[in-house]
Amino acid sequence: MIELQKIISVLEGVETLNFKNVLVKGIAYHTDRVEEGYIFVCIKGYQTDGHLYAQKAASKGALVLIVEDFIEGIAIPQVKVSNSRKALAQISAYFYGYPSKDMVMIGVTGTNGKTTTTFLIDRVLQKAYGKTGLIGTVIVKNGDSYIPAELTTPESLDLQRYLWEMKENNIKYTTMEVSSSGLDLNRVDTIDYKIAVVNNISRDHIDLHGSFENYVNAKKKLVRNLKADSVAILNGDCTETLNFGIETIAPKITFGIKNPFTSVVAESIDLSKSETSYKLKVNETLVFDGREIQPQEFEVKLKIMGLHNVYNSLVAATVGLIMGVDVADIQKALYEFRGVERRFQLIYNDEFKIIDDHFANPGNIRITLDTIKKMNYSQFLLVYAIRGSRGVTVNSENARVIAENKELFGLKNIILTTSNDYVGKKDIVTDDELNCVVKILEEGGIKTQIYPTLAEGVKRAIDLAQKDSLILLGGCQGMDFGAKIALDYIYQKIVSRQKLSVKTLKELKDKIYEPLKDRVAGI
Ligand SMILES: CC(=O)N[C@H]1[C@@H](OP(=O)(O)OP(=O)(O)OC[C@H]2O[C@@H](n3ccc(=O)[nH]c3=O)[C@H](O)[C@@H]2O)O[C@H](CO)[C@@H](O)[C@@H]1O[C@H](C)C(=O)N[C@@H](C)C(=O)N[C@H](CCC(=O)O)C(=O)O
Ligand SMILES: Nc1ncnc2c1ncn2[C@@H]1O[C@H](COP(=O)(O)OP(=O)(O)OP(=O)(O)O)[C@@H](O)[C@H]1O
Questions:
Q1: What does residue 30 show for φ and ψ, rounded to 5 degrees?
Q2: Could you say which ligand is closest to the alpha carbon of residue 60?
């Protein structure tokens, strides 16, 4: 229990009403989580206003309200601040004893690749140091245990609690995804990142931020807040990302594959097989935390495919190098990693291949198609599930990138579907969303086959597949519905073609569903 006076001493310019120095047991920003003796922080949100729930919070036992406007008729102490989200971040960090100060915090932002890159970095650090923390879109991992994540970057209160739990578990290295919303909505205020990574910047989340400029500006907060003894790791092939360099006083390390003058570069990249390989070259002496890493080169091999994963693994290797991890451990950790679900995930690799990918924004679509161009296959089939609820602008931008890559698509080998048979009401694809995609593809000279349900679309692609075809399940496929439909259908087809004994049937089932067994394969 902490005195209210002490907690609010970390806030600037507060005004109080009915002040009493009560003892505080906890903090909540949602009424559902309020308990006796808690502070309730009233946040003016996008959907509703937390101030409207103050009475309910008080009746559940809240002892104090943090408000942006005093609320009449509630007798408990009220502390008025100019920004409740900011205040939530500050009091949460104080309440949990600033746990991040005892850890090396690594923050990864960027439009694409945050999840994969954080998993890869975590793998490298885990190999070297044993217990590590990882926070992102898929999971929150504290050493050996993990829970599914609610957001990419948790709300500040939850984030501080996770970090406190990690500190209690003696975790010294935590890697986390830092989303634009996380930065914009003060979720990571008070966290000092020792290493900040900016993977790449392209258009995304315009619906959340209002404009691309606002989105980029939100992301820049990550490097702006770095101290001089930290480091910014920037993608040297992406001009938008390189611009982040002038926003920070921290030293910079660049990585890339196109610009041979980046600090760390990947050369001789081979994407033609089911495994990826390249030569990592450190072009200059890297200095971090009193360590000097001399120019050198070594081989990197990956089980995960795709040009984007060359970038993601370059970042992880760079973090490993500057953290003093042995090259052999870096190589092993990167090679052992089997990928994260729906991130260019190879889910079937037999007479033909099936890859499952988000395919969600222009950057992600472009790099996925660029990778596909470098692969060997007899025929490429794209099952593209349009994103419901994202609107015409987002869907048109995505369709334009597909149309720019016309050379990949022969006659009618884009199968357009919706996931209306699987998603909830709010994600149903509207006629406008479907029509804008069809129009852009047709204007770009690409013909499509349209199937209203995901099940029909996926099955059609499998029926069309020939030896060495490559099927990409891209777009909104729910969590893994597209993958499940595909594997179920392949299983049924094989079973109906052959007379199999129970033992071989089981073997077949195990083999086919293997990639889905452990969907968070990074663990
Ligand atoms: C768009 C967005 O970021 N929304 C976040 C925002 O919600 P909001 O402003 O709409 O909140 P609201 O529903 O209006 O409620 C206002 C306040 O009243 C409280 N309330 C509300 C109802 C009630 O019964 N009782 C109650 O106390 C709420 O807890 C909240 O404090 O603040 C909430 C509390 O902090 C977040 O949970 C919520 O994330 C929602 C769930 C979400 O989907 N966010 C996504 C868009 C997001 O943040 N994504 C990024 C990745 C995307 C990127 O790269 O930027 C991420 O980091 O996950
Ligand atoms: N470095 C990269 N550059 C461009 N695209 C990438 C990169 N890494 C991954 N991608 C693409 O983005 C998709 C999502 O990858 P990942 O989940 O790692 O990114 P993310 O930024 O965390 O996105 P999300 O928050 O949706 O999980 C991948 O399937 C892949 O197609």
A1: -125, 135
A2: 1
Closest ligand relative to 389 C-alpha: 1
Q: Assess: ipTM above 0.90.
A: yes
The answer for residues whose C-beta is within 8 angstroms of residue 109's C-beta and 6 or more apart is 177, 178, 179, 180, 183, 196, 197, 198, 199, 219, 222
Ordered structural domains, the chain, with CATH: 2-96 (3.40.1390.10), 99-336 (3.40.1190.10), 345-516 (3.90.190.20)
**Ligand 1 atom 28, closest CA:** 30
Could you tell me the pTM of the whole model? 0.87
Are 57 and 68 in contact by the 8 Å Cβ rule? The answer is: no
Strand blocks (E) in 407-484 = 414-417, 448-451, 469-475
Q: What's the pLDDT tens digit per position in 326-374?
A: 999 999 999 999 888 888 888 898 999 999 998 988 888 998 999 899 8
Give the closest residue to 474 by CA, choosing from 514, 426, 414.
Answer: 414
- How many beta carbons lie within 10 A of that of residue 427, not counting itself? 16
Q: Whose CA is nearest to atom 21 of ligand 2?
A: 112
Which of the four pLDDT bands, split at 50, 70 and 90, describes residue 499?
Answer: confident
The residue count of the chain comes to: 523
- SS3 for 50? helix
> Hey, what are 247's tokens?
């926003």
